[in-house]
Amino acid sequence: MSEISTKPYLLRAIYEWCTDSGYTPYLAVKVDSATTVPMEYVRKGEIILNISYGATSGLKMDNDAIHFRARFNGVSRELYIPVQNVLAIYANENGQGMAFEVNVTAAEMAPASSDEAAAPSLSAVPGKQDVPAETVSAPDDNDEPPKKGGRPTLTRIK
After folding, report:
1. H-helix or E-strand spanning residue 97
2. How buried is 112 (Cβ within 10 angstroms: 0-12 exposed, 13-18 middle, 19+ buried)?
3. With the C-alpha atoms ordered 49, 145, 97, 88, is the resulting torsion angle positive or negative?
4. Domain for residue 97, yes or no?
5. Is residue 60 part of a domain?
6. Domains contained in the chain, number
7. Residue 6 · residue 86 · CB < 8 Å
8. Which domain holds residue 23?
9. How far, in Å, CA of 117 to CA of 120, rounded?
């Protein structure tokens, strides 16, 4: 019997925690040919999506994929994200959530005829209070201070 992945259950749990706490759930996704998202918003092969109740319509988080409708520049789009391609889910207001390693995307798995899928590996994202001050590094490599306001970004901690 093949083992069931915990990833879709964790995604639904963090989503529910965000909404119950009054936070805005955001999803970081690795984009490939199996992913249906507006390509004009993809940066470096990834996209960040607001998946709150007010930003989506018909949100359905299955064990295999997340699909919903959302507006981009006033145009309604149908989005499809394989669970395997989800990099992180987090609360926009405080950054708390969960990050996942995506070694093989859904598009890379499609040609393989193997019956066993690799289980996704998980890593916890510590809150700011959990990280000692001396281990915190700059958000990017160019030594510029982070910009205030604007679009939120996700920092991966490995």
Report:
1. strand 97-100
2. exposed
3. positive
4. yes
5. yes
6. 1
7. no
8. 7-135
9. 9
